[in-house]
């Protein structure tokens, strides 16, 4: 038709959905396309509703149009379109106000476990009767984590772009996803007609919180096993295989039994101990084996000294977490590893060797079958984090003992 000369548009990647009245409708996936355009040294022509999102990529010419005729007038010189530019300071950003961890009265051991989990990127399971603060702690956990790096921020916004059309809110905080226990396999892992990302991808670079863990369908829980190891998930379809990132931190919570009061001194479980055993058996051993830290949160009496004492604030704990993460970033700079939870292979052998007393303790628990081979590796990772929190280059017996304490609780 030669309405617009080809040579004028061939330096642009053009995207959008065209309506019958010539309007150009916003679409999803604009941000990753704009990144590809930059790599190809091209500009972007996109719907006006996607203009802000596309402009998050620096040094790319963005022409955002309302109707198809806008681009025709632009290239004919009749009415020029002003390129969209991104002003970071003025852009609308996702707000994430996290409550302070000091709101939780008592539970000193659980808070210590949360600090270790945050410092090393470890998965954590909270077990206790209703009302002990499991969900409160999980929802405050995100506040302990370091800020997103620039690359992590880009990844988070790319995932958001894939799932949402016309996104103008720039995400600057770590995602916190908490799907209901009725969540299906495609909703958790990803899939459906267009192989959309699931909850584990939406939680990439953030936290996936699974409350009432045994209430999730067994198949859904077991589908987490491979992504927890690989930190990615591949969705297979008849005509394509799509791999999404899934580097999330799993925080889970559960009651000790179906009625919730097994082991609670104030109330009794009528079917103990079978009630607790049957309830825990809803979670497979291989999934439990991939959880680094398990902590019990008992009921704390209102008369307990723990309740009256002022707990540490999120900000104070977060400072120690950031200091430990900085040590890990420097240590693993040559290994493409962000934190201790990701350590394997050469880096594991090089940086997680305990002292002689610690090694003897580990050999003993391994010989007595208290931990599996995978558990052995995860204990070393947690112990490395505990050592980092006190700026100790050497992993000592005390560090190993504390890490084992969190691990062996799973099999009591």
From TrEMBL:
<dbReference type="InterPro" id="IPR027417">
    <property type="entry name" value="P-loop_NTPase"/>
</dbReference>
<dbReference type="GO" id="GO:0005524">
    <property type="term" value="F:ATP binding"/>
</dbReference>
<dbReference type="InterPro" id="IPR001208">
    <property type="entry name" value="MCM_dom"/>
</dbReference>
<dbReference type="InterPro" id="IPR000523">
    <property type="entry name" value="Mg_chelatse_chII-like_cat_dom"/>
</dbReference>
<dbReference type="InterPro" id="IPR020568">
    <property type="entry name" value="Ribosomal_Su5_D2-typ_SF"/>
</dbReference>
<feature type="domain" description="AAA+ ATPase">
    <location>
        <begin position="120"/>
        <end position="301"/>
    </location>
</feature>
<dbReference type="Pfam" id="PF01078">
    <property type="entry name" value="Mg_chelatase"/>
</dbReference>
<dbReference type="Pfam" id="PF13541">
    <property type="entry name" value="ChlI"/>
</dbReference>
<dbReference type="InterPro" id="IPR003593">
    <property type="entry name" value="AAA+_ATPase"/>
</dbReference>
<dbReference type="InterPro" id="IPR014721">
    <property type="entry name" value="Ribsml_uS5_D2-typ_fold_subgr"/>
</dbReference>
<dbReference type="InterPro" id="IPR045006">
    <property type="entry name" value="CHLI-like"/>
</dbReference>
<dbReference type="GO" id="GO:0003677">
    <property type="term" value="F:DNA binding"/>
</dbReference>
<keyword id="KW-0547">Nucleotide-binding</keyword>
<dbReference type="InterPro" id="IPR004482">
    <property type="entry name" value="Mg_chelat-rel"/>
</dbReference>
<comment type="similarity">
    <text>Belongs to the Mg-chelatase subunits D/I family. ComM subfamily.</text>
</comment>
<protein>
    <submittedName>
        <fullName>Mg chelatase-related protein</fullName>
    </submittedName>
</protein>
<keyword id="KW-0067">ATP-binding</keyword>
<dbReference type="Pfam" id="PF13335">
    <property type="entry name" value="Mg_chelatase_C"/>
</dbReference>
<dbReference type="InterPro" id="IPR025158">
    <property type="entry name" value="Mg_chelat-rel_C"/>
</dbReference>
